[in-house]
Amino acid sequence: MFQVEGRARRCCDGTARREILRVGGLSLFGSLTLPRLLRAAETVPSDRPRRIEAIILLNLYGGPSHLDMFDLKPDAPVEIRGEFNPIATSVPGLSICEHLPKLARRMHKGTLIRSVSHVYNSHNPYAMLTGFTGGDDRENYYTKRTDYPGIPAVCTHLGLGPHDMPGSVFLPALPGYSQGLRRAGPYGGYLGRQCDPLFTDCDPRFPHEFDFDKSFYDPVPPSGAPRLPSIDALPELTVDRMQARTSLLSQADAQLAGFERSRDFANMNHFQRKAIDLLTSSRARAAFDLSTETEDTRRLYGTSLYGNSLLVARKLIEAGVTFVGVTTESRGAGHWDSHEKNFSMLKSFNLPNLDEIASALIDDMDSRGLLDSNLVVIMGEMGRAPRVNGKAGRDHWPQCGFSLLFGGGVKPGFVFGASDKTASYPTDHPVSPGDLLATMYHLLGIDPSTPLNDLAGRPTPIAHGGRPILEILS
To answer: Which secondary structure element, helix H or strand E, spans residue 427, and what is its range?
Structure first.
């Protein structure tokens, strides 16, 4: 049994949950049962042209402030425009935040969407990963069997990628792990747990001790790297015990050896044994072994948990994984839920870190010839409120936000959509999460109108009516 032990954590809505996740939470077998080796009879390969090989999604968990990043309104009143100033970019006429200078020099390589809009006010990535925006926060806060499947699960269901690697992976851990939750979005839902992505584990390090709740708006930067998931059959394997194991590869070896010495190994079925084979395969292990990277590459990505996660993400798509999600979530800094101290949170860590790691990924992929054949998507589950509140924060605002795309299939140096003078609502080409998902499916060669049957046998299109944004495609 794998457990995450600790006290309850609060969410920004005041919800408290015991931080204990049992089988199915961080379970290897619950999240990966090798469905692509046993493709279901109903799976129909797509004959549509495939323009990209893989997608890396950088999920800015908590709701990044579009007003303070990629859609500044310098002529608006101070309570709207906030504290930051715009700077010019490599795209004539396009300005972004002064705290994103590296990305400013790379905007000619990507497409910026300034009109992402929906009504799903929740911190889980359910809407952005499934395209479904008709949910309710109370109903869809946690993953459940009746959920719609996310794009990572659909990629796995359709058998994309090589047979000896997972179809989708989430780094550095499952969304919600820092608060003891399993947030809806990336899972297989009614497709079954065999379509869940592979979730990695992590043990972030911090420069000093702190109280997570009291430091929520004064976050402490996390460093470290994601690691392969633990093998769940070892009894009472806790995070405290896992933290003592500093070597990724020796950890996997030790867990496998423990399995082989136990009677449980003899009782494991074929699919569980195959999962262990994957866990200890050379390709999977190599993707997580950062020691093989040059010092220059390591320096490029920095030491933050999210920079190392993006470096692993690049290695995973090189190894053939189709969809890799990286969520900026930890017990320290990284979340974008800035109800208080919005500007100090952004300029102290979030914006400089995003500027460093996103630019590193773009440059690294470009230098390796990977950018033209793969897609990088940077977005969050919502934007932030136009008006600064009394605690120097910005509240939830799903009505307007952004998405930034680099790489295969999208126009370089292109801006799509626009918002009104306070960045409250789109005024031009509103884009739904379903449209974004449909665009990703389209680039992967998957028809976004493909129906999948839910538990009651009702067919639902995988992009929930979303249409590819053809205007941004090259």
So the answer is: strand 426-428
Confirm if 142 and 183 have CB atoms less than 8 A apart. yes
CATH number of the domain that 345 lies in?
3.40.720
C-alpha to C-alpha distance for 225 and 232, rounded to whole angstroms = 20
Q: Is-contact 21 239, C-beta < 8 A? A: no
Checking if the pLDDT of 29 tops 70, the result is no
In 3-state terms, the chain is what percent helix, strand and coil (to 5)? 30, 20, 50
223 closest CA partner among 309, 153, 138: 309
Question: H or E stretch including 88?
Answer: strand 86-88
Distance, in Å, from the CA atom of 20 to the CA atom of 177, rounded to the nearest integer, reads 10
Contacts of the segment 302-305: beta carbons below 8 A, 24+ positions apart: 302/353, 302/356, 302/357, 302/360, 303/223, 304/221, 304/222, 304/223, 304/353, 304/356, 304/357, 305/172, 305/202, 305/204, 305/222, 305/223, 305/224, 305/225, 305/226, 305/330, 305/334
Residue 12 one-letter amino acid: C
Which of 454, 390, 370 is CA-nearest to residue 192? 454
Residues spanned by the domain of 179? 2-472
- Whether the upstream peptide bond of residue 172 has omega within 30° of 0, thus cis, is yes
Whole-prediction pTM:
0.84
pLDDT bin (cut points 50, 70, 90) of residue 253 is low
Structural domain tally of the chain? 1
Q: What is the pLDDT of residues 360-387, one digit of tens each?
A: 999 999 999 999 999 999 999 999 999 9
β-bridge pairing 198-199 and 426-428: unpaired
Query: By C-alpha distance, which of 46, 126, 188, 136 is closest to 437?
Result: 126
Question: What integer is the mean pLDDT of 326-350?
Answer: 96
- Beta strand ranges found along 265-365 (DSSP E): 323-327
The partner residues of 183 in beta bridges, in order of sequence, read 142
